[in-house]
Amino acid sequence: MKKVVVIGEILVEIMADTPGDGFRAPQPLTGPFPSGAPAIFADQMARLVQPVALVSAVGDDDFGRLNLERLQRDGVDVSAVLVDPDRPTGSAFVRYRHDGSRDFVFNIRHSAAGRAHRTVAVEQALAAADHVHVMGSSLSSPEFVALNIEAVETVRARGGTVSFDPNLRKEILAAPGMEDATRRILGLTDLFLPSGDEPMLFTRESDPEAAMAELLDRGIAAIVHKRGVDGATFFDRNGKIAVPAFRVAEVDPTGAGDCFGATFVAMWLRGSDPREALRLAAASGALAVTRRGPMEGTASLDELTAFIRAVDERKR
Predict the structure, then answer these.
(1) Would you say the pTM of this structure is higher than 0.90?
(2) Is the pLDDT assigned to residue 171 strictly greater than 70?
């Protein structure tokens, strides 16, 4: 199968046990949980037995070891993850508000994952890749932008493919150089995975479907528009396919989009029928929210198909 490479942050997440506003008073916490959008993506992909390498860095500390042990156990190639002796592993403290929104305290910029490393292992991981997955959260500095663009151009030049999950807000696109960088990546993208209003950020259209048509006209082969509880829609030049979201009791939504994306990309790389790939991805996102911890809800292909089978049987 095709080998995927993803570049970006590894961190631990520590969660407040009670809902409320922020961290301005002592309170009970649970964690650390392995986390970081690229790490969650890679872990879910590995659970599907899709070869995947992660380019990142962790500190020489227990938080780093926690992540590496988890990723290795699930089958991620971590040979290009540097253990930085000088910086700690990244961290995120999160507390949910009563309305479901979140407050974060991050340490990423000054952590091991805040620097892009160009080691021999990184070069080897990029040289072995058939597919690059780019995540907007990882375009956090000019160094990471340059490394992602180099990976995209190198893999594309030898016949590989690219997927791009922007996960960007308008304010991030306004950062110096970010709009040019994302448009450069988008121009080399085969599979685009925007959420919500993101398609309109990259076009002059105000209507989502018109935006999809414009993006396809630019040369993108396929688009998956993620719409949360409203499901997801696949677009290509043959038309569109929509699937609903699976209804589950939500425990922790963090990581659901990363699991959805990893599952769809893996199935797309295997040439799966788009409707089947969408349903598996929707199941992956649904199962992800049923466990506390960003990476605790990743699932195998057998677990995803069993979940879908059980849902279908209840409908009969």
Answers:
(1) yes
(2) no
